Every structure is written in structure tokens, then in C-alpha cells.
Amino acid sequence: MPAAYFIVRATVTDPAKRAAFDAWYSREHLPDATKSFGVKHAWRFWSDTDPSLHQAMYQFADKAALERATGGDELKRLIADFNRDWPDVSRTREVLVLAEEFMAT
Questions:
Q1: Bridge partners (DSSP) listed for residue 92
Q2: Quick one: fold of 4-97?
Q3: Beta strand 4-11 with 53-60: parallel, antiparallel or unpaired?
Q4: How far apart (Å, rounded) are the C-alpha atoms in residues 85 and 36?
Q5: pLDDT in tens, 33-75
Q6: What is the pLDDT of residue 69?
Q7: Of 5, 16, 24, 49, whose CB is crowded by the most CB atoms within 10 A?
């Protein structure tokens, strides 16, 4: 089964709030989500093209593991926590399934 990735894109439109959002996500949300989802790998990115765009990516062994982890109360709690702390930050979520991995020699 190919790996699956849960992607959360957040738009932090107020430049004055980005440093606080970055610190919160790094210290609180990413460790909490990683533990809640039971994943070993997670990444965060800020877009260089659009400085308001933040993306978090969580890697799962396969789509079934992703669905188990995101289909229950833990995701609802994480969403509620996010909404409580960052009510003005909009988000989208996406699921990607690995189609191919290529490593240049």
C-alpha cells in the first residue's frame, strides 16, 4: 500500500500574526497533531510565493491508516483547538496518495 499524506493549508492574512501563529503551530499544534494521528513524520512549510500560506503535511503508512486517524474525535478536537486559538485563519484539507517515488542516482 502506498503512503498517504494529510495536508492542511492555512492562510494567515495578517502579517503581524504570522510569528505568533508559527510559534503556536511549532510548539503546540504540530506535536499534538503528530501524537494524535500516530504518525512518525510531519512537515511544515511557509510559502515563499505567498507569505500568508502555511502548509502542514502528515505522512501515514497508507490511506486506511490516514482514514482511521482523521475519521474520529481526535481530528474534531484538533479542529476545535485551532478554531479557538485562530478563529480568523481559514484552512483547507487535502489527502494525497503517493503515486510514485523516484530517486535520482
A1: 9
A2: Alpha-Beta Plaits (3.30.70)
A3: antiparallel
A4: 18
A5: 999 999 989 999 999 999 999 999 999 999 999 999 999 999 9
A6: 95
A7: 5
